[in-house]
Write a structure and sequence with these properties.
Layout lengths: L4 E8 L5 H14 L3 E8 L8 H13 L4 E5 L3 H10 L2 E4 L10 H8 L3 E4 L16 E2 L9 H19 L1 H9 L5
Parallel strand pairs: 1-2, 1-4, 2-3, 4-5, 5-6
Helix pairs in contact: 1-2, 4-5, 5-6
């Protein structure tokens, strides 16, 4: 069924942070809107799909009262399409977001509002309710207009500071052509 809010989450099967998803559920419930959570996962090379993911996914199902859907292993194109269609990307980490997280970077480049957890080692320039939503600082989810502004600001900073052009510029300064 179609819902008012759509949350896409993607990550390594063994790294699902259930307590942060409980916090997300509380924030979603407080909106009074209907919502769905779509989960895709991946495995590191030379690892296996073990019972720990099944246990964590079952925990997510119970946290979200059946409003969570396992999408399986999505291709890059399918992940891209999910990012275009979702209200939020939820990405939670053991300590905090790092600059090398390609899923978060891709979401921000597409103007998707990201709900994550930040710490002192997260990329500089990421600010709660300006260009990301920090689950640890959030007392309510932003309304639709503010969510759109956060997504647009995320796109701006992703292109200006963290996009491919910035990587190429940094590499050019140290690599002879």
């Amino acid at each position: 069924q179609d819902t008012d809010l759509k949350v896409f989450t993607f990550g390594m099967a063994h790294k699902i942070r259930v307590p942060l998803y409980k916090r997300l559920r509380d924030l979603l419930d407080a909106t009074g809107k209907s919502y769905s959570v779509y989960v895709s996962t991946a495995l590191h090379e030379n690892t296996s799909f073990d019972g720990s993911f099944v246990v964590r996914f079952e925990e997510l199902q119970s946290v979200f009262n059946g409003q969570v859907y396992f999408m399986g292993y999505l291709s890059d194109t399918a992940v891209f399409n999910q990012l275009l269609d979702c209200t939020y990307l939820a990405a939670f980490f053991e300590k905090g977001l790092r600059a090398n997280n390609t899923t978060v970077n891709a979401a921000m480049e597409q103007g998707c509002a990201v709900i994550t957890n930040l710490d002192e080692y997260s990329p500089q320039g990421l600010v709660h309710l300006k260009n990301v939503i920090d689950i640890n600082l959030c007392d309510r989810l932003p309304d639709a207009a503010q969510t759109e502004r956060i997504g647009l600001a995320a796109r701006d900073i992703a292109h200006a500071q963290y996009g491919w052009d910035q990587l190429v510029a940094q590499l050019r300064s140290v690599v002879r052509t």
